[in-house]
Amino acid sequence: MKLDGKLCYSALLCAGVSTGLLANSALAQQTNSYIGEVAGKAGFVDNDADTKYLNASATLYLDPVKENVGPLAEAAFLNRATNFYVYDTITEYYDDNAQDFGIGGEIYIPNSMFYAAASYNRHKDDGNSDGTVTVKAGITPVYGLRLLTAYTEDEGYDLNMEAKYILDLPGAQALNLEAGFRDDDSNTITAAVDFYINSHSSIGVATVDTGADTTYTFRGKHFFTNRFYVGGALTSADAGDSFEVNTGFRF
Length: 251
Known about the structure:
By secondary structure, this protein is mainly beta. It has one domain (3-250): Porin, CATH 2.40.160.40. It has helices at residues 3-23, 75-78, and strands spanning 33-46, 51-66, 83-93, 96-108, 114-125, 128-139, 145-152, 160-168, 174-182, 188-196, 201-209, 214-223, 228-236, 241-250. Strands 1-2-3-4-5-6-7-8-9-10-11-12-13-14 form a 14-stranded antiparallel barrel. The chain is globular and about 50 Å long. This is Membrane protein. Keywords: Signal.
């Protein structure tokens, strides 16, 4: 099946999930909150394989997510919002296609600082299919800060740590600060910063250093309303530069 056909499958999948989510949206009719989100993105990688990909996803939150806690893009994180999600990604390269279908969830344990997450990804490529489970555990010791470590099935456990912190600035401005380290063969280091010009708009940069290669991503996002956003990203890497556009709607 070609990319267009699989895109239709992805769209139908997320449409079905979003219908179920919309049935729960009455829970979020209070002012300045949402209960779910549907999103999509498309990208192109300038490499020998002429890689293209499409992704669709849907997320449901157990409780309404308040929007008036800081940057709109960070509302779920700042609310410590427990959620469940589903996604489907179709990738086309050379004359072949690959598919990644996944489900997962994040749980912020009430009245505690503890965080846990789990996801399952099914990868199909060239007639082969393989499933992978990833689990994460962490803490949120202070407001706006999360520290976690992750374990992925079949890869074993390499010591790793990820940190994310939202720093409030004067007015409606803020910084999203992220850093990570994995004690693998490459001693991979990741870092990112996003500057929130206001609660609706951000620009940022992210980097991944594997020792053999360093990638840089320049990204931005703007909420045209509290519920609808559009974003984009440009990545520079030795394996090929890439461009991505994304959009989402909350309800």
